[in-house]
Design goal:
By secondary structure, this protein is of the alpha/beta class. The chain has 2 domains: 2-40 and 285-373, Rossmann fold (3-Layer(aba) Sandwich); 48-268, Alpha-Beta Complex (Glycerate kinase, domain 2), CATH 3.90.1510. It contains 13 helices and 13 strands. The relative contact order is 0.15.
Length: 377
């Protein structure tokens, strides 16, 4: 029996690789002769860096950059085994987890650090850069990133705007004359798990602003600011980023990559599956395990488990999702290729206790799932 084990990391708990190893232990406890293939995945958010770099035998670097609240931070990024493709996980330079709850303010947070890493990758001669768009603390439409590349964002008096999304309400002109020319020869790809546009009821500010600290009034302010940004970008740069699917990813960084780096956007999970040669590994497989911290209605929108199930379904292989918890609408996942959803919790406990037991709970749930699977005729 061949079993593919393809979870993503459990936020605050364990990495994708650690989760895969825990699931493997459970599988082998139930079926010692099983052929297991560990393929930790990511969807553009947490874990994308290691999913791509580790799978290809690449290398991880650490750079000192400006974090989302303008303090210096150490951020990891890497290069894949081909020696030509850099991988940046924007959350490591501009992520929400880096900002204490009381200091979360999407009106002022910046993607400058992500841009500084992008500039370093280009300066080092990499011909392709993948930017994972997930887990951001920002809502600046990538203006901070573009500033690191040499763009200037000016008000009507010709003064440079301060960092952050709120200031974009006063944006009058974008000066790109100082942008590094080397970027034109580099392929930039944004890996995202969302298809949200830049503005509107399903845009960056409305959907993701509240989790970054935005009140209802601030959401409206930021949405208007990004709308003004889109108008100026269209006028000054000839690029209409307003309604491009995924342009609202990472607080509008998707739009920024398109406008200032000539980037394209792609499903993060599909990109990771391609690198892992996931479809090749599915040949002859009997069962697939995937996993994530919480399964709910948002998981449907091209998150890693659904991407894994989509690939597995084309090969006729059932997918079991192991979830740390279940939220509203998780049943919808059954309409997207998931054969079974199992909550791994094995008793009453606090959230912190659950984080410490993630590995053991994955192991136990995987073992029970395989024992049931072996009962089929």
């Amino acid at each position: 029996m061949k079993i593919i084990i393809a979870p993503q990391g459990f936020k605050g708990g364990i990495s994708g690789l650690e989760a895969a190893r825990a699931i493997e232990r459970g599988v082998l406890a139930a079926a010692p002769d099983a052929d297991t293939v560990l393929l930790p995945v990511a969807d553009g958010g947490d874990g994308t860096l290691h999913a791509l770099v580790d799978a290809t035998g690449g290398e991880v670097f650490t750079s000192t950059v400006t974090g989302p609240i303008n303090t210096q931070v150490e951020a990891q990024w890497g290069v894949m085994g081909d020696g030509q493709t850099a991988v940046i996980e924007m959350a490591r330079a501009s992520g929400l987890a880096m900002v204490p709850t009381r200091r979360r303010n999407p009106k002022t947070t910046t993607t400058l650090g992500t841009g500084q890493i992008l500039k370093e990758a280009i300066d080092r001669g990499f011909s392709r850069v993948i930017v994972g768009l997930g887990g951001s603390a920002t809502n600046d439409a990538g203006s901070g990133m573009a500033t690191a590349l040499g763009a200037k964002f000016l008000d009507s008096a010709g003064n440079a705007l301060p960092s952050g999304g709120a200031a974009l309400a006063r944006l009058h002109h974008i000066d790109t004359s100082g942008m590094m020319g080397a970027i034109s020869g580099v392929e930039i790809v944004g890996a995202t798990d969302v298809t949200n546009p830049l503005c509107g009821p399903t845009g960056a500010s409305e959907i993701f602003g509240p989790q970054k600290g935005a009140t209802k009034d601030v959401v409206a302010e930021l949405d208007a600011a990004l709308g003004n940004f889109a108008e100026v970008v269209k006028r000054d740069m000839g690029v209409d980023v307003l309604d491009i699917p995924g342009s609202g990813a990472a607080g509008g960084l998707g739009a920024g990559l398109i406008a200032f780096a000539g980037g394209t956007l792609r499903s993060g999970i599909d990109m990771v599956c391609d690198v892992l040669e996931f479809d090749r590994h599915l040949e002859g497989a009997d069962l697939v395990f995937t996993g994530e911290g919480r399964a709910d209605k948002s998981t449907v929108f091209d998150k890693a488990p659904v991407g894994v199930a989509r690939h597995s379904q084309t090969h006729g292989v059932p997918t079991i999702l192991l979830a740390g918890s279940l939220g509203d609408g998780h049943e919808e996942l059954y309409n997207h290729g998931i054969a079974s959803i199992l909550c791994i919790s094995d008793g009453a406990m606090t959230f912190q206790q659950a984080l410490g037991r993630t590995g053991k709970m994955l192991e136990g749930t995987a073992e029970r799932a395989v024992r049931i699977f072996l009962l089929k005729p």
